[in-house]
Please model this.
Amino acid sequence: MKIAVCLKQVPDTEAEIKWDIPSGTLKRDGMDSITNPFDEFALEEALLTRENYDGEIVAISMGPEKAADVLRNALALTVNAVQQVSDPVFAGSDTYATAYTLAEAIKKIGDVDVVFAGKQSTDGNTGVVSAELAAILGWSQLTYVSKVRQIDAAGKKIVVERAIEGGNEVVEAKLPAVVSVIKGINEPRLPNLMGIRKAAKVEIPKWSAGDLGVDAGKVGAAGSCTKVVEIAVPPPRGAGEILKGEIEDIANTLTDKLIDLKVIK
Model:
């Protein structure tokens, strides 16, 4: 079985976030970056799948030079291979352009049975890249997965539990499939010192747009269907008003204010 896992480098949520207002993008230079926390669960699920069903894992990350760090972490956790997708023309990609580029990378890797991904990233928070990836590839789409029950590579099927409002549902789908997992599906492991040292010496392979043979009109800003048109900082919240007096008087005053605000009629 061949397993792929998509990893993204995101700004550290504890770091100060700075925006490039005109371009509508994050100022990533100089910011501390980490592996997208949701992708850590996807990586762990890929490792568990290999342990349970054998096979090999390829970790993929699309991003600038610095994004190689997340792949080194994956190598330290013993994935079999990594592949960075990096090219200046990919800059400005929205969710569709990102999914398209990742799909071309997965096609180039070839013979992938299942792709694991986190349900969303902590910078974009769209939660749609995995679904778009499945649609572009024409593969089964399994989202909000809380448990992988069974994978039958020979029979080309997978059975998972999905978290839905009010409970879980069990779904059987055909392989190949794209599986996006939720927080809590497992407990991500940490790399050991030996793994970190070995990963630090590995040269991370990179594919450019030319290597993938992608349509230039479908990647980066040119291939994006959406763009950020405005970024604004929410106005500071004003101080609240404290009502004092008898309960009946406070209730009447509060009711009048809610009517004035058209909250109630």
The two ends are 62 Å apart (CA to CA).
